[in-house]
Specification:
273 residues; Rossmann fold; 5-stranded mixed barrel; 8 helices
Length: 273
Amino acid sequence: MNDIMSKIKETTDYIRSHINTTPDIAVILGSGLGDVFDDMTSAVTLKYEDIPNFKASTVAGHAGELVFGTYNNRNILVMKGRFHYYEGHEMDVTTFPIRVFAALGVKKLVLTNAAGGISDALNPGSIMLINDHLSFMCPSPLRGPNLDEFGPRFKDMTEVYTVSLRDLSKKIASDNNISLKEGVYCYFKGPQYETPAEIRAVKMLGADAAGMSTVPEAIVARHCGMEILGISLITNKAAGLSGGELSHEEVTATAALAKNNMVTLLRNVIGEM
């Protein structure tokens, strides 16, 4: 057994020793969204620093906790905060929880994030369903020896974000009078925000929103054969589109003010997945 598979086994064994059933769904909550499922029943909370091979969260607005519980009759694992490439982690560390989720038997993954709006239709407070992404400027999380236990060397990326889950989200949004946009998320490594020139360039390539997470996790989840739903909460206009400077404080503050519709959407989608 190679080193990464040994670490995955060690971590899954630890998590299994604290939960009593297989999770149906895993959810990764982005900046400012950590309390979405705080009312889960029979919740078990594990701090990242106590989980073998997990890293401590260093980003404001990320609690650094893995919570297992029941919501709407679904057994879910919730990551309250994620690992980012810009924190100094290699891609295999950034995406390590996804491999662990797959080893635990998780079949569906919900990825959320706070993002900058590029499209004219996306303003602070908008919610965007991710239908595709751009990531060719960044290292691939599948680089290096392939983990054959999870997927093939050359994995197709035609449909990363599962159509049926997107359709379900659109139906639930309509039923709850939530305005739900749809678009392409562009992944940047960070931690610096994008320049106006970079935003103009990726807009020409079809990007609707930009952020520093989600895509590495989605690629690895796709490699593992999971169904994937990606949702962005737009917390600011991207660089050069608002006339002001960008800050993480703005991101978390806007997320706190604008997340009610996001919470409603996520909770109802989870209940029907």
